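Anyone up for a design puzzle?
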């Protein structure tokens, strides 16, 4: 058996630290900003159902596989894959998986930072009382004005990138654990406050119905692909983020239990966010399928009406920024760790290089909401393209390859040794999922989308 690899970047102080970091990566804009508008765009219930199925059948097994690879390789995803290929005697082409992840991470962060910038700007709006008794039209105009101004967007995008570089430069676990430990539960509590408000508005059941009554006639390629992509995006899977966090995980922690905890927390927050937002959408007769502006057009209405709205609204957007922050770190970490390992850069230099590059790419997204709005390809703006390419194609493809590598290419003895699932039934179940169910499902969805079946 090959000797165990060790990480040059350090190790988590405990299993809880890993859960917190992985949950911090998973819970972010994907849960609160993206999940509701994706559900809204795709007709609600059917999307939510497929999303949940994808979390259980694809997300969980792949998350376990990804953590397992990280812990076994203990380096950046590129070098982890390289080392594992050598140890397992398989094709070096698997290294591409690591590369794909670095590229996907940078592309995702480029637009993620712009949207996190919207949240930053809403911290300011909320704290200065802009939401007080705001009307639907005024809320709509506030958001439209924000995205129409490239300079304002660039300002907030820059601020968020600087925040990200700052933390990444200091090393992964400094401060991150504490931030996640206190801020994530607070975010959950604030979503509950919003749900409380939604409950008082009389349209709560309309929201519940929208989210949980699947209309099967609405299921088409788009819904399938979006739901699968959203499951990968929300759990931070398929690009090495979870792999690199796994590389800092101690040898004794249970991968199965840890992954379950992370997936459960992430999914709960997304569902709660939906339950907070849709009743408001229906109470004000807004459009559920209005796209990326959904929460920015609806939440100010709720904060503008509820008692203590300035306080709750400001706190909510502050926490949303923190959630985005702990996610953005994991998006850029694979690229940074690779530059440190391969090019021998200091962490600070590597973070600045990656950050500046990502910032530049992000300008494409900034302009796609205003001056480049009419530049589209297949009806998609730069932002739409980046989001589609990463969430719907690159992440599921990454997940597919991870499953094939773990299920078919690695020796079973290595897999068994590293994943260390004690219960034999559970192990067999996971193995069947990774070997057959996951790859076949992703493959079929892809084939279906390109119209082959
Ligand atoms: N999961 C995060 C969210 O929901 C986004 C994210 C962080 C991510 N790291 C990732 C998505 C890695 C895909 C891959 O907001």
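Challenge accepted. My sequence:
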């Amino acid at each position: 058996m090959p000797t165990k690899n060790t990480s040059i970047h350090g190790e988590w102080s405990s299993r809880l630290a890993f859960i917190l970091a992985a949950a911090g990566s998973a819970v972010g804009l994907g849960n609160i900003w993206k999940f509701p508008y994706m559900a809204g765009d795709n007709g609600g219930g059917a999307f939510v159902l497929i999303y949940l199925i994808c979390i259980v059948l694809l997300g969980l097994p792949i998350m376990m596989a990804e953590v397992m690879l990280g812990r076994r390789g203990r380096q950046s995803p590129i070098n982890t894959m390289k080392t594992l290929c050598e140890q397992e005697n398989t094709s070096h082409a698997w290294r591409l998986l690591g590369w794909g992840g670095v590229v996907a991470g940078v592309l995702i962060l480029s637009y993620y930072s712009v949207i996190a910038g919207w949240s930053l700007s809403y911290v300011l709006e909320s704290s200065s009382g802009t939401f007080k008794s705001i009307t639907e039209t005024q809320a709509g105009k506030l958001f439209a004005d924000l995205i129409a101004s490239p300079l304002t967007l660039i300002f907030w995008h820059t601020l968020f990138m600087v925040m990200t570089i700052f933390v990444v430069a200091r090393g992964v676990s400094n401060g991150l654990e504490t931030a996640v430990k206190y801020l994530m539960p607070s975010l959950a509590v604030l979503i509950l406050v919003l749900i409380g408000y939604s409950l008082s508005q009389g349209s709560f059941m309309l929201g519940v119905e929208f989210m949980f009554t699947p209309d099967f006639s609405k299921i088409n390629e788009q819904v399938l692909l979006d739901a699968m992509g959203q499951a990968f995006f929300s759990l931070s899977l398929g690009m090495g983020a979870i792999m690199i966090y796994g590389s800092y995980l101690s040898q004794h922690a249970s991968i199965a239990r840890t992954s379950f905890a992370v997936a459960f927390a992430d999914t709960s927050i997304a569902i709660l966010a939906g339950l907070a937002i849709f009743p408001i959408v229906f109470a004000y007769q807004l459009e559920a399928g209005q796209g990326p502006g959904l929460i920015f057009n609806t939440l100010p209405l709720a904060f503008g009406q509820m008692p203590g709205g300035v306080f709750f609204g400001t706190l909510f957007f502050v926490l949303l920024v923190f959630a985005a922050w702990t996610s953005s770190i994991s998006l850029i970490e694979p690229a940074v760790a690779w530059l440190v390992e391969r090019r021998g850069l200091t962490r600070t230099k590597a973070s600045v290089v990656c950050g500046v590059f990502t910032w530049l790419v992000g300008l494409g997204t900034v302009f796609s909401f205003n001056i480049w709005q009419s530049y589209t390809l297949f009806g998609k703006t730069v932002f739409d393209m980046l989001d589609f390419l990463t969430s719907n194609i690159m992440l599921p493809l990454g997940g597919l390859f991870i499953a094939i590598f773990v299920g078919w290419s690695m020796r079973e003895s290595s897999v068994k040794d590293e994943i260390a699932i004690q219960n034999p039934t559970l192990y067999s179940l996971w193995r069947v999922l990774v070997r057959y169910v996951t790859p076949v499902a992703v493959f079929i969805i892809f084939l279906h989308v390109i119209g082959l079946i």
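A detail worth pointing out: The two ends are 43 Å apart (CA to CA).
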